[in-house]
Structures are given as C-alpha cells and as structure tokens.
Amino acid sequence: MKSITLSRQLSRTIHRPQSRRLSILPQQTPTYTNTLNPTRKTLNPTIKQTQSKRPFNLSSLSSLLTNNNNNNNNNKNPEGRTLKASRTLPYAPNPLYKVISSVESYSQFLPFLTASTVTARDPETGYPVRAFLTVGYGPLSETFTSRVDCDRSRWIVEARSGAKFGVDSKDGQDVFPGAVEGIFEYLSTKWVLTPLGEDVTRVDLEIRFEFRSQLHAAMMGAVEGQMAGVMIEAFEKRIREVAER
After folding, report:
1. Which residue of 76, 78, 157, 164 has the fewest C-beta atoms within 10 A of its own C-beta?
2. What's the pLDDT tens digit per position in 161-220?
3. What span, in angstroms and rounded, lies between the C-alpha atoms of 92 and 202?
4. In angstroms, rounded to a whole number, what is the distance separating the alpha carbons of residues 173 and 179?
5. Where does the Coenzyme Q-binding protein COQ10 START domain lie (predicted)?
6. pLDDT digit string, tens, across residues 27-45
7. Together in a domain, 199 and 125
8. Residue 63: inside a domain, yes or no?
9. For residues 183 and 169, what is the distance between their CA atoms, to the nearest angstrom?
10. From the CA atom positions of the chain, what is the Rg in Å?
C-alpha cells in the first residue's frame, strides 16, 4: 500500500507544473501582439514627413541673389548690374595708367580673370584695341572678345564685350576660344584716373554686366558684390609691386 500511495503522489507532483505552464502561455501571446501594433502605426507618419522635405526647384535657388546685400555702392536691376569701387593712391597718374593699359597682364593680378591676350593694337599709340579675356569663378568660365579703348588724355581704359556695345562673339576674328560658353550677356570694365595733386591719384573702377541666366546669377551672387572691391585692391597691390622694382 505504501508503494501505491507514493506513486500517486509522484504523479500528482509531475502533472501540476505542466498544467500551470500551459495556462500561462495563452496569457503571454496577447501581450506580445499588442506591443507590435503601436510600433507599426508610428512608422508611417515619419516616412511621410521625410518625403515632404525633398522638393527643390530653380526659383528657390535664384532667390539667393535677391537676398544678397552688400555695401559696395552697387546697383542691381533686371537689365544689368553696376559695381563700383575707388581708391586714393600716393602715386602720379603715369605709372598707374601704364598698369591699367597693360591688358595682357590683367590675368597676372586681377581676380576672376584667368587669361588675357591682346590680339590687336593701335599702330600709332601701341595701346591694345582688341583682346581675348577669360572670366571665371569656380566651375563657370567664359572667353570672349573685348573692344579696348585707351584714352590717355582723360586717363581712361575701358574694355567692353557683348552685343550691347556692338561687339559680337568673334568680332571678325577667326580664332575664338570658348565661343560656345556664356556667362554674361555683356561685360564692361572701366578704369578712370583723377589726379588730385602731386603724386596723389584717385582710381575709380566701374564694372557693368548682365548674367545670361538666373542660374549663373545665383551661383555668382555670393561674390558678385565683392568683385569691384577685390579687383581694385589687387590693382593697388600690383602698383606697389611695380613701384618697388
């Protein structure tokens, strides 16, 4: 009898834990399922918000130009832009005019000019009357023919390019590098010297231009307002170098 009673107790002990484990498993399954559903719902709004930030168009890029302010006495209008800068230097006008009339050396000291080649000179004065000038900044570059006017009696040197000034792309010249590239509709650079006294001269630089596209305008907008000031500072540095030779 003792052996039968012991076997019954053992069987009860074995079956009781199994019945408890089976009763616990169904309670865990709903809890696991409920934690997944909220996670799936919060993913969809996140994806939609990210996609809404992706659109970008050219109009937003071109607006950078209109928001660009500077204090370099510059004038902007739909037909073109005018940049001005001036310096008063302790030199007579003669050495200054020699530098500004040496168009072939512009690329050696003027920023934004990567190449300068005189293609024709006045037979009487020897001053340049035609030149190839390459203007560039970053990935943008353009080479065009410039008509150069040197008037020593008024201490003026002006280089003009574009149909606005009656100068077409080739202007009668057979070789024209970079003719298919185009940043500007026209470009004019004018230097004017004004003697103020003995060995004192005021230098005025005026740059007039019009971009060919709004994309070019936006890309150059970051440096546009600084062009005249940087160029006249480079000219001043060049004068010092020439004077020290």
Report:
1. 78
2. 876 655 554 444 444 343 444 567 888 899 999 999 989 999 999 988 887 777 766 666
3. 10
4. 11
5. 90-236
6. 444 444 444 444 444 333 3
7. yes
8. no
9. 12
10. 38
Report the distance separating Cα 202 and Cα 68, nearest Å.
Answer: 28
Point out which residues pair with 121 in neighbouring strands: 128
pLDDT of 59 > 60? The answer is no
Rounded to whole angstroms, how far apart are CA atoms 106 and 109? 6
Structure tokens at 92: 């007579």
Question: Does residue 112 share a domain with residue 3?
Answer: no
Residue 188 dihedral angles phi and psi, to the nearest 5°? -135, 130
- The residue count for the chain: 245
| Terminal Cα distance for the chain, rounded | 129
- Asked if the structure places residue 66 within a domain, the reply is no
Please state the domain count of the chain: 2
What range does the domain containing 5 cover? 1-55
CA separation for the pair 74, 211 (Å, rounded): 15
If residue 94 lies in a helix (H) or strand (E), which one and from where to where? helix 93-100
